[in-house]
Amino acid sequence: MHHRHLRPWELFAEDDDASSVLEMKKDSFDTLGSNNSYEDQPWVAKYEKRNLIRKVFDREVWIQEPALRQIQDTIFLQAVLGSLVLTAICVGIFVALPKGRFY
Questions:
Q1: Residue, of 68 and 42, whose pLDDT is higher
Q2: Which of 12, 34, 46, 47 could form a disulfide with 8 if both were Cys (CB 3.0 to 4.6 A apart)?
Q3: Which of 10-19, 51-60, 82-91 has the highest mean pLDDT?
Q4: Closest CA to 17 of 40, 46, 34, 41
Q5: Alpha carbon 96 to its chain's center
Q6: What's the sign of the alpha-carbon dihedral 71, 72, 76, 79?
Q7: Cα 14 to Cα 10: distance, rounded to the nearest angstrom
């Protein structure tokens, strides 16, 4: 927990090329002048060549914003509690059924 995957353009960005990332972000909101396409970016071909396992297990970075970590914790706890409640309901239904041998 408290980690996020690096985005594909962050994986293949070079340290000295920080100005192009800033330039890309600036141009991405230009709705009238550009077509907001990223297919011509150099990282696209490299990322498409990666296999599925490497895409799933990409590098991760620590989330530094405390509010975002708290939101992540809340969502995780809600998912765990929701699954426990749903599991208890399903167990109750299958145990309550007489002689169905569903368990």
A1: 68
A2: 47
A3: 82-91
A4: 41
A5: 39
A6: positive
A7: 8
Q: Which two tokens stand for residue 11?
A: 């994986």
Close Cβ partners of 62 (under 8 Å, ≥ 6 residues apart): 2, 3
Measured distance CA(14)–CA(21) in Å, rounded:
10
Sequential DSSP letters for the chain: --EEEPPHHHHS--GGGHHHHHHHHHHTT-TTT-----TTSHHHHHHHHS-HHHHHT--EEE---HHHHHHHHHHHHHHHHHHHHHHHHHHHHHHHSTT----
pLDDT digits (tens, 9 = 90+) for 63-92: 889 999 999 999 999 999 999 999 999 999
The rounded distance, in Å, linking the Cα atoms of 13 and 40 is 15
Give the CA count within 13 Å in the CB-facing half-sphere of 62.
2
Amino acid making up residue 58: D
Residue 10: both structure tokens together: 């962050």
